[in-house]
Design a protein that fits this description.
Largest sheet: 4 strands, mixed
Strand content: 5-15%
Strand order of the largest sheet: 2-3-1-11
Shape: globular
Helix content: 40-55%
Structural class: alpha/beta
Number of helices: 18
Length: 476
């Protein structure tokens, strides 16, 4: 969706100040590059190195920024256009790598299983306001070092929507991209119509580990959109101020951008400055804090300013149940993502400081996103919507219920929720007096029992089985 409403957190002068600071960090402070091929590539293109500490001239960064495509066209599993990432187009999905999972049937908080990744994809496939899939879990019932491979396997079988994923290392990533190529009909077809985008991140502040950079090399080789963004802790691994964290965050994401563009000018790239504050009272890092969304909202604005697709976050809560706190935190985040034009917005369904994935929360987020979209669509004003002829026809003291205008617009002018309670008290009571959490959990179970995602062809499933088995055998 493209929001018709927007806010401005930063002036153009403030954006320039932050970018100038990021360029200065790369030129003067430098960054540590722990991958020889990346270090050699940077030096060959005018950077200076003192051991693994590399300084990158702003002229090179600006040149690489200019070569990044302004839009990434994503496709679904069947090769149909699905998400146009760029401008102020906003798309929502779940998040990854939660160490715990709320069982959708018992409510128990337990270690995640591969079926949980499959169920998350299946629910995503059914919910109208979720645009792409992430797993909400770190699979714990399969080979631990291949959790990423099993996660992608579970997701690609259970949704036709695009997938955003991650990988432990380049070896696993190659298996995963080969799996995607099998589904797409070949490596070239996958690059032509990508349905997967791969997440990698540096280690803030200003450290770029070997595995993170190797993944940039692999995604660029395959022609897959590369997402490179830090996961900062404001006040710990980045400055305590939002402005300082933005400068460090952009310095970090620019390193991935430069390497990506040096490898293949014009390669699809997405950036961002993800980060959470260090809560000094609990020493935890709250996703639902205002500082988190303000940082990401400002990041969105700067990325739009540069013409780079923007990675964002919304739909998270520190609450342990789907309660008022969960709704408050997720709603503010979702609205700010739409108002600042985040492109790929992840982490819907996150609970408990990002430690626990919840399908019930994901279902509630679907409702929040739908409602927020209606707010941000704004008010359309034209002759027919004002409708003077309808007003004259009804006249003083009349009733618009039977007006042709009402019949034409009541479905589009109003938002009709799926989970929010709008009936009279007695009707709610007679229907079991269910809370929002109970209604959402009931819907999740209904979808898991009845929704049938479009199945992959048996021969493709067989090839996926072989690739997963090959990955398992490679580590034995």
């Amino acid at each position: 969706m493209r929001s018709n409403l927007k806010i401005e957190l930063l002036s153009d002068c403030q954006k320039d100040d932050i970018l100038d600071a990021a360029f200065s960090i790369l030129e003067n402070t430098g960054c540590r590059i722990h991958y020889d091929k990346a270090l050699e590539l940077l030096v060959e293109n005018g950077c200076t190195a003192d051991g693994i500490t590399v300084k990158i001239p702003r002229s090179l960064v600006k040149r690489c920024i200019d070569s990044v495509p302004k839009v990434i066209q994503m496709y679904d599993r069947n090769g149909k256009e699905s998400m146009t990432l760029g401008g102020r187009n906003t798309y929502f999905g779940a998040g990854p790598t939660c160490c715990f999972f709320y069982d959708p049937y018992t409510g128990e908080r337990r270690k995640p299983e591969k079926q949980d990744a499959a169920n998350t994809a299946k629910l995503t496939d059914a919910l109208p306001h979720l645009d792409y899939a992430m797993s909400l879990c770190m699979i714990a019932d399969k080979t631990p070092t291949l959790a990423d491979v099993h996660e992608l396997d579970a997701m690609v079988r259970n949704t036709t929507k695009p997938i955003c994923t991650w990988a432990f290392n380049p070896s696993n990533l190659r298996y995963m991209l080969e799996m995607c190529a099998v589904v797409a009909g070949g490596k070239d077809k996958l690059a032509e119509k990508p349905f997967v985008i791969v997440y990698s991140e540096p280690t803030s502040p200003m450290v770029h580990e070997k595995e993170a950079l190797q993944k940039v090399f692999v995604t660029t080789e395959y022609g897959i959109p590369t997402l490179y963004t830090p996961g900062m802790i404001m006040g710990a691994t980045s400055p305590v101020t939002l402005a300082g964290s933005l400068a460090v965050g952009f310095a970090d994401t620019f390193v991935g951008l430069v390497i990506n563009q040096l490898l293949r000018p014009g390669a699809p790239f997405m950036g961002g400055t993800s980060g959470t504050p260090l809560d000094m009272t609990t020493m935890q890092t709250p996703y639902g804090a205002p500082a988190t969304s303000l940082l990401l909202g400002a990041s969105n604005e700067i990325l739009h300013y540069l013409g780079i697709p923007a990675f964002d976050m919304a739909g998270s809560t520190e609450s342990k149940t789907v309660d008022a706190q969960a709704g408050i935190e997720a709603s503010f985040q979702t609205m700010l993502s739409l108002l600042t034009g985040g492109n790929l917005v992840h982490d819907a369904g996150f609970m408990d400081i990002g430690m626990t994935g919840s399908l019930t929360m994901l279902c509630v987020c679907n409702e929040i996103i739908g409602m927020a979209k209606r707010y941000c669509a704004g008010i359309e004003v034209n002759e027919d919507r004002i409708g003077l002829e309808y007003i004259e026809e009804v006249g003083p003291g009349g009733n618009f219920l039977h007006s042709e205008q009402t019949m034409e617009y009541f479905r589009t002018e109003f938002y009709y929720p799926d989970l929010l309670e709008r009936r009279i008290y007695d009707a709610w009571k007679e229907d079991g007096a269910l809370t929002m959490e109970e209604r959402a959990a009931k819907k999740v179970r209904m979808i898991l029992a009845s929704h049938e995602p479009e199945a992959l062809a048996p021969e493709i499933q067989e090839k996926l089985d072989k690739l997963v088995a090959e990955a398992e055998n490679s580590i034995r």
